[in-house]
Amino acid sequence: MVNTDGQLFTIEGVAAGLIMLLTAYIVVGTTSLYTPGDSHISDMQLEQMGRDALHMMNTPNSLTVSGESTLQRVIKNNDVDQFRQTFLWFANNRTGGTYDNLQFSADYYYRNNLANSVNQIHFTESRKPTGGEHPMRVTEWVQVDNSAGGAMPAVVDARVQAVLVEVLIWRD
Amino acid sequence: MARLNSDAQWIVLMGFMVSFALFFLAIVVNQSTVVGQTTAEAVLEFPKNDIVDMRSEVLSASALSTNNLTLVKNDISSLSLSRKNAIVSFRVSVAPPGSPYTKTIEIHYNNGVTAYNETTSH
User: What is the span of the domain harbouring residue B10?
Assistant: First the structure.
């Protein structure tokens, strides 16, 4: 039999149900927004960290005008071991506790003046990329004097030039 | 059976207020992740590091001799275009008479989204 008892309870029940439904919708939407493939925030931090490490390596070690940076010397002498050691040390060092576990793969690009072409040289890496990583790319301009006493690969022009060092970094 | 009466109105009212407070707090939490994501995306997209790095390379290249400067200028333009998708051009000229500096450097950078132009002396 239809009567008008319990109307307030019915209205309250419907209102509470709507509120719970909306809240659940918002909460579920919130948590599913952040997925591992969409981790822009950690990407941003990784990029800045790698860029800082490269920039530290490209800071001259002395105040004189001719003072070379570690990165300039490493590229000029093709000293892959020194690069690997220094970069990993800068990238993985922490204020305290254990070392971070960043890996990298470094190339540099140079311009051939005669052919006016841009070519790549694979420099070194701490681990071969498998393709499953989620790396960030950081770059640094390096001015190298390969004209006198440089030990860069023979394909590179023997002259003063700017090369672009590109490093892929990822967290293991 | 429940009957329509006017008892406990404050309790019912408090219940509604608490539910609405929770509802708005959920909206705040929801928006906060969007804010973090869009900020990070904007930072990643803006070529701050590229510009700072290119600028420092141009300034150190400006000390080179004329021949080397031409070569390095072409290096920077070619590599920027092929690797960084950016047009970079710069010019080093003699500073105007009376200036305390010796060189004037004009730098132009454009990657299609961000343009950066600078005239500096040193």
Answer: 1-45
The verdict on B57 and B117 lying in the same domain is yes
Closest CA to A57 of A39, A41, A75: A75
Are residues B70 and B115 both part of a single domain? yes
Residues in A 105-124 with any Cβ partner in B closer than 8 A: 109-111, 113, 116, 118
Helices B48-61 and A40-57: crossing angle in degrees, nearest 10, is 10
- Give me the residue spans of the domains in chain A: 40-171
pTM for this model (two decimals):
0.75
Distance from C-alpha of B86 to C-alpha of B53, rounded to nearest angstrom: 13
Asked if residue B62 and residue B117 are part of one domain, the reply reads yes
Q: For A103, left (φ over 0), alpha (ψ -120 to 50), or beta? A: beta
Q: Are residues B41 and B63 in the same domain?
A: no
d(CA B92, CA B113): 25
Tokens 């800045």 belong to residue: A48
> What ipTM was assigned to the predicted interfaces of this complex?
0.73
Min distance A58 CA to chain B CA atoms (Å) = 10
> What are the residues of chain B with a beta carbon less than 8 Å away from any beta carbon of chain A?
1-4, 12, 15-16, 19-20, 22-23, 26-27, 29-30, 33-34, 36-37, 40-41, 43-44, 49-50, 53-54, 56-57, 60-61, 63-64, 68, 71-72, 74-76, 78-79, 82-84
User: How many domains does chain B divide into?
Assistant: 2
B74 and B91 assigned to the same domain: yes
> Cα separation of A27 and A23, whole Å?
6
Taking only the tens place, the pLDDT of each residue in A85-119 is 999 999 998 888 888 899 999 999 999 999 999 99
- Rounded to whole angstroms, how far apart are CA atoms B98 and B115? 31
